[in-house]
Amino acid sequence: MLSMEHAAAAAATSAAASPPAFSFGETRVSWRPFSRDSSASAYHCRTNTCKISLLRTREHTERHHAGVAASYTPQALKGDSVSQTEDYTKYFDFVVIGSGIAGLRYALDVAKCGTVAIITKAEPHETNTSYAQGGVSAVLDPLDSVENHIRDTIVAGAYLCDEEAVEVVCREGPERVKELIAMGASFDQGEDGRLHLAREGGHSHHRIVHAADMTGKEIERALLTSARNSPNITLFEHHFAIDFLVRQEGPTVTCHGVDTVDTVSGEVKRLIAGVTMLGAGGAGHIYPNTTNPLVATGDGVAMAHRAHAVISNMEFVQFHPTALADEGLPIKPKDRHNAFLITEAVRGAGGILYNQAMERFMPLYDQRAELAPRDVVARSIDDQLKKRKEAYVLLDITHKPREEILSHFPNIAAECLKCGLDITKQPIPVVPAAHYMCGGVQTDLNGETSVIGLYAAGEVACTGLHGANRLGSNSMLEALVFAQRAVKPAINYVQKLAGLHQVINEKKEWPRPCAPSLLKKEVVDEILEITSSKRKSMQGIMRDFVGLVRSTESLKIAQKKLCELELDWEEEIFRKGWQPNMVHLKVCELRNLFLVANLVVSSALARQESRGSHYVIDFPELVESKRIPTLLFPTSPVKTSCC
């Protein structure tokens, strides 16, 4: 258990260990570490995770082929039915994976110059963007300044931010917000007709543009409407991206599109493109309690890692301090798949945190109290829960006028009222929940990854903006800025290809995956039941050993348990008749979850200090010499198999 002393020290790391006067100077952090001609300083953590799994490498697939065939019993077979419509292949100029703010904003611009396919795992609106409540941070108040926004971002990021990326985002952000408005997004206005700007934890000024507490939903509506009206955009709804189509020549890896599976029909579809944009969101579901929707299973990072893209800073998983604690509600919600977020703006509007004895506790941990950055508040709540053996704390906004509460937080008020709680009269039970992945696929300032032809933007990317901890409402801003910055280089690359990507012998280059329609339905059901059980076990390991407070011992235990669990899962499903080239949404998701969980653990073990959202008891202090990014490289050559 984290002691009060440990927690107070952890809470103070973002502020106390850094000089109060902010300056760029010689301590400026700038890293484009994947660059092909770069020698930037970083932790080079070469992970062996992609050698563990039968479902991850062709090498293991071939080695165990005979054993798999032997377990493929007649009782498991339906007969000679084919598994899919044969050889579905389509060509586009651009393929976009994900229909959130990053993917849609990018698609709308590149569609002016070519054909675009948008692959979305579920309904197009079912994205992390739609669940974002708070807003978009941008300097639009004359009393504010870009320099203030830069300072706030770097302080919240525990001084690990790439300052070049921070400056780009903070300076270009206001224009990107104005473009959203021009595209039809409607944001709250004050009585003077100007945009109403809210304030959140870690921000020194009011700069959050919002649509009540449903900002993401409004942005998604506006962008999706525009995308549906674009003649050059094709939406592939309910399509799961399996793996990138990549070719390796020496050290150079090039992406030529992606294999997908229609999760309704089971048909595998190959989409070949000049440029692929990855906007697949985060990986909240490596944990059992997350604010992320069910689609957030780390697919983008896992696919990119298998394609040999450089991955960075995966140890920094941000836990939002205030997710609705169902245990504290008068009426318990049924079948909730993700924790309901209580936006940072509630604390920004004056909300106060109490333990269940109605004792205010945040001033004990940080002088900024409820307005401290998320990592500080989350660890402080965690310490209160462990110290007092309670399941949740209370967030109280009842001292504010009823009309103001209902006007600013109608969505939260309605959700709580369904559960028997009136937030204008009663405090809200809250608990930290996995919320945001600060690391991801390493990109440059134009969204380019280390794989040629592959770009990334949004939560799946690591631009360096967030450092060790994200400042509230900077996520959608980052997505907007880098999605737009990726447009010009992507168009230039496609134009240089001049259609060459359409003459690739794709049948020879990449084996084609297939749906498990050769298996009897009851066998598939058994495999999916096993997969569901193992998924819960994996999430339990991450909760118990890789949470808000970590230790070297707990991380090593997690690494061992994850490896054993993954191999057990694979052995069980292969005995049932599963084959390495088969694809199913739930099986592919768990494959990706295991990989991303391992990347988080490997990165956490590499960073022997406490910084931002990574707090490890063995190394409780910030260490200036370790103020460098963590990089993850696979160790084996790129594979062309589907699983």
Automatic annotation (TrEMBL):
Residues 535-621 form the Fumarate reductase/succinate dehydrogenase flavoprotein-like C-terminal domain. Residues 93-475 form the FAD-dependent oxidoreductase 2 FAD-binding domain. Its cofactor is FAD. GO terms for biological process: NAD+ biosynthetic process. GO terms for cellular component: chloroplast. It is found in: Plastid, Chloroplast. It is an enzyme of class 1 (oxidoreductase). Pathway: Cofactor biosynthesis; NAD(+) biosynthesis; iminoaspartate from L-aspartate (oxidase route): step 1/1. The keyword Protein transport does not apply. It catalyses: L-aspartate + O2 = iminosuccinate + H2O2. Keywords: FAD, Flavoprotein, Oxidoreductase, Pyridine nucleotide biosynthesis. Gene3D superfamilies: FAD/NAD(P)-binding domain, Fumarate reductase/succinate dehydrogenase flavoprotein-like, C-terminal domain, Succinate dehydrogenase/fumarate reductase flavoprotein, catalytic domain. One of its GO terms (molecular function) is L-aspartate oxidase activity. The keyword Oxidoreductase applies. InterPro entries: FAD-dep_OxRdtase_2_FAD-bd, FAD/NAD-bd_sf, Fum_R/Succ_DH_flav-like_C_sf, Fum_Rdtase/Succ_DH_flav-like_C, NadB, Succ_DH/fumarate_Rdtase_cat_sf. Catalyzes the oxidation of L-aspartate to iminoaspartate. Belongs to the FAD-dependent oxidoreductase 2 family. NadB subfamily. This is L-aspartate oxidase. It comes from Adiantum capillus-veneris (Maidenhair fern). The lineage of its organism: Eukaryota, Viridiplantae, Streptophyta, Embryophyta, Tracheophyta.
